[in-house]
Each structure stands twice: as C-alpha cells, then as structure tokens.
Amino acid sequence: MAKNKLSDLNDHLFMALERLNDEDMTPEKIEMEARRADAIIGISTQIVGSAKVTIDALKLVSNGSLSFKEIPQNFGLTEKNDPV
After folding, report:
1. Tens of pLDDT along 47-56?
2. How far, in Å, CA of 47 to CA of 55, rounded?
3. What pTM value is reported for the model?
4. Is there a domain that residue 7 lies in?
5. Phi and psi based region of residue 72 (left: phi greater than 0; alpha: psi -120 to 50; beta: remaining)
C-alpha cells in the first residue's frame, strides 16, 4: 500500500536518518545512502511546500479572503457543508 501522508513522510525521513547512522556501513554504502538522503530531502521539500500552499489557501478561505470555489480542483479539496 502506498504511503502518501505527511506522517508517512516523517517516517521515511527518520528511516533515512537511521540508515545514515548505521556504524557498520562501508564507505561505499555511506556514499550511496548520502546520495539517497539528498534525493529524499529534495522530494520532501517539494511535498512540504505543496502542503503549505494548500494550508495557506485554506487559511484564505477561513478568513474570507478567498471563496472555496476559487481554489483550483487540482488541490484535491472538497467543501464540507456542516449542518447548523
């Protein structure tokens, strides 16, 4: 099953850190893990940036600066109509 939540991203980052702290790794393995960690950092930065844009858009809706209908559909958000 795909792990596509921000909490899963946090798990992946800590797993990468654990791999880098493995004292039994050869210099070649350390180099490979360092490159892998750099790639994970790059992708993670983009994911967190995307989540921040979504949160910022929701804040604008919350304070009335933006209508929910103005948020592009590719954000994957749906409006919830709570009964009053």
Report:
1. 999 999 888 9
2. 12
3. 0.71
4. no
5. beta
